[in-house]
Description:
By secondary structure, the protein is mostly helical. 68% of the residues lie in helices and 0% in strands. The chain has helices at residues 2-28, 41-66, 72-90, 94-97, 107-129, 133-153, 172-200, 205-226, 232-256, 261-272, 300-307, 313-318. It contains 12 helices and no strands. The protein starts with a helix and ends in a 7-residue tail after the last helix.
Amino acid sequence: MKTWGRATSAAFLLAGVTAAAQVGIAVTVRILQLDARFDDVDAWSAQIALLAWFTLAAVMLGTVVSSRNAGLGTRFSAAIAAALGGALGSAVALVPARHADVPLGDPLLLAGIAIGLAAAAGTLLAFVSAHGRALAWNAIVYGIVVWALLGEATTGPDPARLGQLSEARLSGPLVHNLGLWGPPAAAGVLALVVAVLARVRGQHRLPIALSGLAGPAMVAIAYLVAGPGSSDYQKIPWVAAMLAAGVGLAVSVVVGLPPRRDDAVAEAMSTDTAPLPQRQPGPVADGFAPRPASRRPDSTESWLNDLSPRRTPEDKQQFVPRPLG
């Protein structure tokens, strides 16, 4: 009970502080601009994707750190507590969202729904990621890369987009190519590095095979919550996030699923040296005994003797001879 209480409270507090810190930093450096005027729906969707990802990252970090050596039930409780803490921490962004001017819908309601959906999806993703170190490694490394891209985007005049480079110093075709194929390539490289490292360290094959999905899945879920948009400004990052999740999973599966050489040799040796099954004698039924092999009768006397009544020792004792005459 003490372990469960410590893990649950730590997950709640860590996720809440992480989410609030991320939102605070993003608002301060103008990565997150929820109080602006949005003439385009896609620009507002890009902001919603960022808010959803901050919530997902907080839930993931709170669950993985607080329940590393805990049991199954404790990990699930920690994931739920982290989801609640992450949602409350991200709710700080609802304060500037009250002043947003969007072309469609209530900005406060839309931001709140995005936070709730991201926290719910993050519960399942964080619970699965807590079962393997390779999953957690990939999520943390991918999160660092995403934050590096967000920091690079602050140097340009255009608003930052989740998992994308700034468009200020790049030409149009190059921006489209990097925006579409850059995230899948980065996800594949990171999945390969993490999976190989985890395999060398002798971790379980199933978490290694799924590790390439952990980090890209957070970005993909954030874009699923925000929607694909109506123009290339939102469609290209949306498609790139889905491709990155697929590529990362494919690379980690190729690296993690094949059996290790030592495991294959041990399995082959155990199969070759296994003792052959021995036939066990069956049970003998009550009142039944196997009939011994009898000699083959060679004369008529043998079968005539079988026709005469057999005498038991008791019959011999009861026999009394009669006197003659």
